[in-house]
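FORM 12-B: Structure-to-Sequence Request
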């Protein structure tokens, strides 16, 4: 009888995606809130409701970009950016919430 080596289960790969617009942010409310709740280092400025309010207050609806990291169907990282024009170039700048402590839990 031959012994079989134990099989290792691997976690699903992390995949990245970028979404555009405040509407995309609104569509992520539940997932974003779950990520926020899992991350002990998250600040109120990284909550979905603050980011949504910020995008509306600064009329940034069409300029919001969201860099997301998902493992399987679970959101495990998120960073909001704002598309700006500087010296004739399009530049992505981190929103106030996209700091080194952005939720990545």
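FORM 12-B RESPONSE
SEQUENCE OUT:
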């Amino acid at each position: 009888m031959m012994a079989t080596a134990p099989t290792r289960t691997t976690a699903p790969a992390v995949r990245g995606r970028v979404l555009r617009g405040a509407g995309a942010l609104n569509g992520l409310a539940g997932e974003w809130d779950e990520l926020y709740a899992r991350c002990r280092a998250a600040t109120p400025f990284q909550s979905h409701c603050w980011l949504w309010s910020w995008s509306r207050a600064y009329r940034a609806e069409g300029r919001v970009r969201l860099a997301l990291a998902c493992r399987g169907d679970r959101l495990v990282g998120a960073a909001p950016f704002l598309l700006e024009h500087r010296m004739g170039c399009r530049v992505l700048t981190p929103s106030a919430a996209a700091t080194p402590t952005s939720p990545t839990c």
